[in-house]
Design brief:
lyase activity; hydrolase; nuclease; Usb1; five-stranded antiparallel sheet; alpha+beta; 14% strand; 247 residues; nucleus
């Protein structure tokens, strides 16, 4: 019985951030030759001035402890929204039963692994959109993916890979229209099952992945279990969700 291969990988950022922004290089003040620059002193801005410029308030502190140790890929900035395009995977009870076996075994190698709260297959990186771009961006996505048919996916895609590459190509075109980062070159499409803070792929490689693959292969009806209809594409931008059905 064949089954979808398991993969271990590291990521430089999360795909489920709230509002985020691009880094801005602060300006610098010059000083006369021979003079030492004066230490900067932060003075409070009067409320009357802040009320005149509602977009200039200080950024809230990002406490990673509130997000399981995850750190934003982009610093928080008012008006910027972290955006991600993906195919959702609705986990059935049998899939969750398999995960209940896989995760404890993987945790013997990496105890800090945490089960994913939801499952999906990414079609884009996390990018930053200005708020007024969201609806035009989503409409462009709808126009691009309107004609695509359903495909099948597993933990790592073993069929339908070409169709997913075609989908990514259309999503990339929309990214380019908005001058945003396109998806990875030669991507490996997969559904994440668990995550942890830090890079633990070395602990997962080799013996651990072989043992997990054996569990998947021996699980009853795993070949059928790890297939799912990809019926829609979703775009998450900040706290907004948009769905685009696949025909």
């Amino acid at each position: 019985m064949s089954a979808a291969p398991l993969v271990g990988y590291s990521s430089s950022g999360s795909e489920d951030e709230a509002e985020a922004g691009a880094r801005v290089r602060p300006g610098t003040r010059g000083c006369s030759r021979g003079q030492s620059p004066l230490p900067s002193q932060k003075l409070p801005v009067p409320d009357s001035v802040l009320d005149m410029f509602p977009g200039t308030e200080e950024r809230p502190a990002d406490d990673s402890a509130k997000h399981g140790g995850r750190v934003r890929t982009f610093p928080h900035e008012r008006g910027n929204w972290a955006t991600h395009v993906y195919v959702p995977y609705e986990a059935r009870e049998e899939f969750l039963d398999l995960l209940d076996v896989l995760l404890p075994h993987a945790q013997t190698y990496v105890p800090r692994l945490v089960r994913m709260e939801a499952f999906h297959l990414s079609l884009s990186q996390s990018v930053v959109l200005r708020h007024h771009w969201i609806l035009p961006f989503v409409q462009a996505l709808k126009d691009r993916v309107a004609s695509f048919q359903r495909t099948f996916v597993g933990l790592e895609v073993t069929s339908g890979h070409t169709q997913f590459l075609d989908l990514v190509s259309e999503v990339d075109r929309v990214m380019e229209e908005f001058d945003l980062t396109t998806f990875y070159q030669d991507p490996s499409f997969h559904i994440s099952l668990a995550w942890c803070v830090g890079d633990a792929h070395l602990q997962l490689e080799g013996q651990c992945l072989r043992e997990l693959q054996e569990i998947v292969g021996e699980f009853e009806d795993s070949e059928t279990l790890l297939r799912a209809h990809a019926e829609q594409i979703r775009c998450k931008s900040g706290n907004k969700f948009f769905s685009m059905p696949l025909k």
